[in-house]
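Sequence only, no structure available. Ideas?
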Amino acid sequence: MRNMRLKPALTYRFKDSLRGVFIFEGVYLAIYTVLFLIAGLMADWNVSMFGSYGFSAVIFIFVFGICTIRDDLRTLIQHGAGRRTAFLANMLSAAVTAAILLVVGKCFQLLETAITGAVSFSDIITDDLVVQLWQMEPGSTAAYLLTAAAGFLVLLLAHLGGSLISLLFYRLPKPWNIVAGVGVPLLLLNGLPLLAFSGADWLTEFVRFIFSGILPLLCALAALCLLTALCNWLLVRRTPIRAAK
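Reply:
I predicted one. Tokens follow.
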């Protein structure tokens, strides 16, 4: 019976996701149009500008993951869905949202490239950051496929990471919420970089291997997505769910 309730749960989740994505895309397009025009007027000043869509999309879907997971659990379980159904609906919605953001981002990138080529803004850079970092040929099929895969996994990981933080705060008692609120940012911003470059040869080599090419990076991102999704599911199984207000 729980599997039969997955379809209406997905319908509810998709409608909410599409509404959020539509608002995000509209705001981004309005702001970026203004910035693009300003950069075009300043082209003689040797201005260079990367498209910021990827960073904006990551922040958006990260916050979206924080906000939606607990609301989904409360609302869907209150309407008769099981925890597994609510979790699957949230996961599938996250994947679809990441895919939509990715496709729209690629469309924005193609539009930016066409406009800059048409008006000869030679100092405005619109290539994907992954293409620049790994020195792939811009516009090639391999570059599009690899950057699409990397972008999708980064967006999905951001959503899962936001959900993990939300579930941790939902599950932990209030004193530990304070500890987690202070400790997690310190760990991410200071602890992990210090650990990665602590001088341990095996760890340094491992980090270098991950960033040595796009394929090792894709494998690492996929592994992190699976690990984070597993942690989220374990938290969902044990989290006390309160009815939606």
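The chain has eight helices and no strands.
Hope that gets you unstuck.
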